[in-house]
Design goal:
By secondary structure, the chain is mainly beta. The chain contains 5 helices and 27 strands. A 6-stranded mixed beta barrel has the order 4-5-12-6-11-10. Belongs to the peptidase A1 family.
Length: 392
């Protein structure tokens, strides 16, 4: 059994933003928020439903050949914060982009393959916390020619009048980003990576809020881990901070140090339909030390065509006793904290179980279940790992 403390959601802290590299990993916000548990719960349901609808139809086809050049140490890192005070249900990191560097908030997304930044000139731009980015003011920007291997790697591409590659990424929730496809310099704290392929989005519509762009962490060949994989031995981890801890941050580390001694691993599976996602084998779930008989391995099995399966995807003072829930993966048993499977619905001590049915055979281990775990992605070893209390 676990003890779950019921805490009121704190008011968002007030900070000021700067374009210089942050001296610490503190949260930058654009407005004061006072979010009730009821409103937070409604936002979570909306976010999760739209996220699931976006994931199901994706079929990846990208084939990239270029790799970014890097300077500095073998491994590198960045900070992670929860974006609620930016008006978002996503987790953000802060990176330097361009020459000279402009530090921007980027959404972390393990379910996509194209890195992109919203920039001027804007045909349609959503609200973001950082000033708009100007590609004309960076010396390291280089447009990718039409017909090049990188341009041909995109699922949807075209050409402008200057024969520069145009990218477009559409999501089934109606969101879309469209603009120039280019290479640019990214800075992760003190490590610089050059020639990273990314999109400069001039038309960005839909559910994007707060962040300036998206750092793709998927398995596809245009994602950031694949592009820069040789630089950090194709290993990285992140730890998603508790959503109620607005002022706290954690780290994302690329390199061999991403693997800790307490990490338990399960093999990564290959899905012919969803090469973007990190697919794993879930064998069952136990509650309070007893396996739930109705939850059998067949419910999560992926067939030879790639249908079904499970993916890992990066949206008062009363105390109660709750049973421990364990996810039984192939080779790894992961015990969840109470905050990984119970969501406060109101201020009276009502909670909702943080699992829901899906409209297809695909199951998703989302960022609520990953919260406060160190999740290690080891593509070199074809495995994914979990270490408890990794954000400390």
């Amino acid at each position: 059994m676990q003890t779950l403390l019921l805490r009121p959601l704190p008011s968002a802290p007030t900070h000021s933003w700067t374009n210089a590299e942050p001296e610490s990993d503190s949260l930058v916000e654009i407005s004061e928020l006072n979010v009730t548990p009821e409103r937070l719960f409604d936002l979570q349901l909306q976010h999760d439903a739209l996220r699931a609808e976006t994931i199901y139809p994706i079929i990846s086809k990208a084939v990239a050949r270029n790799r970014p050049r890097a300077t500095g140490r073998t491994g590198f890192s960045s900070s992670i914060i929860f974006g609620l005070t930016q008006g978002s249900r996503e987790y953000f990191t802060r990176l330097g982009v361009g020459t000279p560097l402009r530090y921007l908030y980027m959404v972390l997304d393990t379910g996509s393959d194209v890195v992109w930044v919203q920039c001027s000139p804007c045909k349609n731009c959503y609200s973001q916390s950082d000033p708009i980015f100007y590609p004309t003011k960076t010396r390291s920007f280089s447009g990718i020619p039409c017909g090049s291997p990188l341009c041909c790697s995109l699922d949807s591409s075209g050409c402008n009048k200057r024969r520069i590659c145009i990218y477009q990424v559409s999501y089934d929730d109606g969101s879309v980003t469209f603009g120039d496809f280019s290479t640019e310099t990214l800075m992760f704290r003190r490590t610089k990576l050059e020639c990273v392929a990314l999109g400069y989005g001039h038309d960005n519509e839909g559910l994007f809020v707060g962040a300036t762009g998206l750092l793709s962490l998927g398995r596809g060949r245009l994602s950031f881990p694949t592009q820069a994989g040789r630089r950090f031995n194709r290993k990285f981890y992140y730890c998603l901070v508790d959503r109620s801890a607005f002022s706290k941050s954690s780290s994302m580390i690329f390199g061999d140090t991403a693997i800790s001694r307490t990490t338990v691993f399960t093999p990564l599976l290959t899905n012919p339909k969803l090469d973007t996602f990190y697919c794993v084998e879930l064998l069952g779930i136990s509650v309070g030390g007893t396996c739930v008989r109705e939850i059998t391995p067949s419910l999560f099995k992926m067939d030879p065509a790639g249908n079904g399966g499970v993916i890992i995807d990066s949206g008062t003072k009363t105390s109660v006793k709750v049973p421990t829930v364990v996810l039984h993966f192939r080779g790894a048993n992961v015990s969840l904290l109470a905050t990984n499977y119970l969501i406060p619905v109101d201020s009276s001590g009502t909670f909702c179980y943080a699992f829901a049915g899906t409209m297809s055979g695909l199951s998703i281990i989302g960022n609520i279940q990953q919260q406060s775990f160190r999740v290690a992605f080891d593509s070199a070893g074809s495995q994914i790992g979990f270490a408890p209390r990794g954000c400390a």
